[in-house]
Amino acid sequence: MKIASFNINGIKARAAALERWLDSAAPDLAVLQEIKSTDETFPRALIEDKGYNLETHGQKGFNGVAILSKLPLEDVTRGLPGDDSDTQARWIEATVSTDKGALRVVGLYLPNGNPVELDDDGAPVAGGKYAYKLAWMARMEARLRALLALEMPLAVMGDCNIIPQAEDAARPDAWREDALFRLPSRKAFRRLVALGFTDALRVRHPGPGQYTFWDYQAGAFERNDGIRIDHVLLNAYAADLLRDCRIDAETRAGEKPSDHVPIWAEIDL
DNA sequence: ATGGTAGCACGGCTA
Questions:
Q1: Which candidate, A167, A64, A175, places its Cα nearest to that of A114?
Q2: Which of A23, A142, A199, A234 could pair with A238 in a Cys bridge, judged by C-beta atoms 3.0 to 4.6 Å apart?
Q3: What is the CA A92 to C1' B7 distance in angstroms?
Q4: Beta strands of A111-199 (E only): which ranges?
Q5: pTM of the complete model
């Protein structure tokens, strides 16, 4: 089973690019981020006409996540628990089953967190975007603990808005104070991974220079000024089934591309 | 310190 994650940066603007990728990569399941669409206005036919089931968790204008799958999507849940006042659509879950077993899948769009606002003591300013990012990651930890307790294969995939290590950026020094790379962000992410996850790309293809995002501005892609922020995290049950993991970087060179590219994993299920 | 690009939706926010 080939599972993938792709931040498409607007489903309406990305119809052609998404279609090209679905036809060439042919994932069995994919989580999408930044659909920037409500559930009602999502162009479902684009995906359903290719034989995929589709579940969306949308929002007008911003954010929004979705899961598409050739297998039926079971036990679908929407939203990250832990804060009823949070209206941002950044989390969706579903289960798929084959004759070999079942897989629980999380599709997530972790908050960017910029601009970083700190008080005089260096603490994140309450109500600011950076405080929201860290609080969201604390809620994510609680949900991941509950999912790990299911003791079944689990894939947590999406735009994590975290550069895990210096080797995951072409110019790490340019990101030192950024919400994607500053030390408290990396520590919070490391804490999540340490709950019991494997970074699928890192174990299959270790080393620097593997990016999933290049800014639209200042010719970042042409200069290969990229960062690795889209991740496939597998619990031990799923990591035991991992065959391969790759980044489809060539999609960034296509017509009207997203600023992110897909990452996929082949799982023996 | 600023500006550079893109999406949504048509003004300004988000990234």
A1: A175
A2: A234
A3: 22
A4: 154-159, 197-199
A5: 0.98
Total structural domains within chain A:
1
Residue A145 lies in domain: 2-267
Tokens matching residue A217: 């501005």
Q: What are phi and psi of A186, to 5 degrees?
A: -65, -40
Helix (H, G, I), strand (E, B) or coil at A18: helix
| CA torsion angle A247 A248 A251 A257 (round to 10) | -40
A106 neighbors A148 (Cβ within 8 angstroms): no
| Residues of A forming the active site | 109, 159
CATH of the domain at A28: 3.60.10.10
The model's pLDDT over A200-253, given as tens digits with 9 standing for 90+, comes to 999 999 999 999 999 999 999 999 999 999 999 999 999 999 999 999 999 999
CA A149 to chain centre: 22
What's the CA gap between A211 and A246, in Å, rounded?
Answer: 11
Nucleotide nearest to A111 in CA–C1' terms: B15
- Contact in structure between A195 and A144 (CB atoms under 8 Å): yes
- Residue A38: DSSP 8-state: -
Residues 6+ apart with CB under 8 A from A257: A17, A251
The whole-number Å distance from A165's CA to B4's C1' is 26
Residue A58, both tokens = 């949308």
What is the rounded distance in angstroms from the CA atom of residue A197 to the CA atom of residue A242? 12
> What is the signed CA dihedral for A13, A95, A5, A18, rounded to 10 degrees?
-30
Helix %, strand %, coil % for chain A, to 5? 25, 30, 45
